[in-house]
Structures are given as structure tokens and as C-alpha cells.
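Q: What would this chain look like folded?
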Amino acid sequence: MRKKFLLYLLFIGFSSKASAQCAMCKAVVEGGNETIAEGVNNGITYLMVFPYILVGVLFYFIYRHKKKANS
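A: My prediction, written as C-alpha cells:
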């Protein structure tokens, strides 16, 4: 339990210093155009969703395979 708590604190400490955007994205967003900034954020969200979907599908097939093997 103590190790998990220390690991949690470590992640929180490093995440506060992390930069959320690359240098090019930051330069585009700092231009002041809200539509471009919104487009960058939508693009990041779009790219971030697919790994979660793929992992979810993988776990579903593993679950289905194990359930079929047990019955």
C-alpha cells in the first residue's frame, strides 16, 4: 500500500511539470486564432481515442476466448 502511494505521489510530481503540447502545436495555438486551437485540440483527442478502442477490442476478444475455453 505504501509503495502504491509513493508511486502515485511520484507521478503527480512529474505530471505537473509536463508540457501537454509539442513545440509546433504550441506555436500554432499561441497565434491567437481560436478555431485553429480548437482544431489542434480535436486532432489530439481524435488521435488519443484509437489506442483505447484497440485495447478495449483486444481485451474483449481475450475475455470471450477465455470464457469459451472454460465452458
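The chain has a mean pLDDT of 81.
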